[in-house]
Amino acid sequence: MRENPQTGALEAVDFGELLPMLSELGKMQIEFETVTFNPPLDSCNVGPEAWKHISEEIIARYDTADGFVVLHGTDTMAYSASALSFMLEGLGKPVVFTGSQLPLGKLRTDGRENLLTAAEIAAATLPDGSPAVPEVSIFFHDKLYRGNRTTKASADAFEAFKSFNYPPLGTAAVDISFRLQFIRRPAPGTVLTPHLEMDTNMMVLSLFPGIQESTVRAMLETSHLKGVVLRTFGSGNAPSHNWLPALLSEATSRGVVVVNVTQCTGGNVAMERYETGLHLLKAGVVSGKDITVEAALTKLMRLFGDGLSPEQVRDAFQTDLAGE
Known about the structure:
Blueprint: E1 2-3, E2 10-11, H1 18-21, H2 48-61, E3 68-71, H3 77-87, E4 88-89, E5 95-98, H4 111-123, E6 136-140, E7 143-146, E8 151-152, E9 161-162, E10 170-172, E11 176-178, E12 193-194, E13 202-206, H5 213-220, E14 227-232, H6 243-253, E15 257-262, H7 275-282, E16 286-287, H8 293-305, H9 310-317
Parallel strand pairs: 3-5, 5-6, 13-14, 14-15, 15-16
Antiparallel strand pairs: 1-2, 4-12, 6-7, 7-10, 8-9, 10-11
């Protein structure tokens, strides 16, 4: 975004205008091609159709481009980065998401450094000529994170994103330093295998003290529901109401896949640790381990989008697909 000098309102920037706005890009000895959505989307309106569009643009240029930078609003960036990590199976080139908290044109904008560094990361190679970061990532405020491990943690700080359960893939200071031991690399001979269909018959259900049976029942009995991300307390615990595991058991028996994700910013789901988690396990709830809500939701969308049965989704969800 940039600020309209007449109205003061934020409006979208055509990506083609970025090159003259950022003269530093011309000094990087990188050949750029820009693609702009028409019309541009506020990130609150980005979803499966936009993810498919972004993926198709990457696929169309995959054999000719060395890397990709996706400029994206911050509000749903972690969802989009997670989604693309599952949609672009076998990815062997960098896809770096970035954006800004302050729009371009503002005196203290973070967009300039974020974009320039993201472009440098997308073009970076190892001594053998292979891409330095051949996975979907988010670069923001000097940190490079795995996309499907990332959550937006602040609405107004420049350090807007955090990866609570996985270390940064790299840091940018005077030099860009990559932590190669944490970067995911495709096996030799792996080819890009797109999965462009996403099933959106999903729900995120957050437990809270005093939650009512009627509320949970109404949500779990929603027509066409296929997957639920259940946000629980602590290490995957839930209130010891008899009705809760009963409703969850009914849902799982109908083929709804329920994944347990902790409401804590860090740590793992371990339903066997306490009695308040064990009854969820017995009801057929799948452990999300240390996955983020964004990754859990988009992983369910992709697996059901592949046309898998509920049992196949349950099994596949417990398999690491993209380092999530």
